[in-house]
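Write out this protein's structure.
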Amino acid sequence: MMINQLKASPCGNFFLLAGPCVIEGEQMAMDIAEKVVGITSQLGIPYVFKGSYRKANRSRIDSFTGIGDEKALKILRKVADTFHVPVVTDIHSAEEADMAAQYVDVLQIPAFLCRQTELLVAAARTGRMVNIKKGQFLSPEAMQFAVQKVRDAGNPDVAITERGTTFGYQDLLVDFRGIPTMRAYAPVIVDITHSLQQPNQSAGVTGGRPDLIETVARAAIATGADGLFIETHQNPAVAKSDGANMLPLHLLEGLLKRLTILRKAVNEMDNE
């Protein structure tokens, strides 16, 4: 299973899903992938390139949604074939599952859709690994039922991603007590950048707190997360989606080096 391969780092490191929020073009995707592959190879971090081929959940009708489904999916496949890494993208309806599965290795279920049975079953039946983002409105315990839907559809290759819980109208918080709870159901990934979003802004564009990326990432490692999810971009200020909470690409290497040191310390404590 893909999830077992990701967890099988020889040095006991976490695995990483990282890339731009959305595929804006081929060159940007290839440049980001090349940079992250180089870093993760050096640090012994199993890596999955992340990029949405379409953004269906937008604040406004004039928000950027993508460069075209087939064009973006082909770019994802080119990343996979060029750099020999798996790729992940999110799907929004059952009808998208088979199409996306022809190009990517992991299908991701958006948080707002994590209870949609038809979507979960369709993703499961492709045979691809399914990464379910925990709804901002759900308890950690409720995620066992989403996981079970995928398994009951015949696919044991499933993971859960924590991406924050709604805290008031314009903020999210990560309840780290949920990490060990959800690990009883499936491997757990913590989405560092989306959990720092500040939704429902008056301008109709989601805000964020990228200054806290390392704080949340350290906490995720300390509480036993199996993997991390980080959106990154060469220049978040001009990114077409989620620029307010993405990590500038040039800061990724230092962050992952420090998190690798922390993961080693956690492993040593766990083995005492």
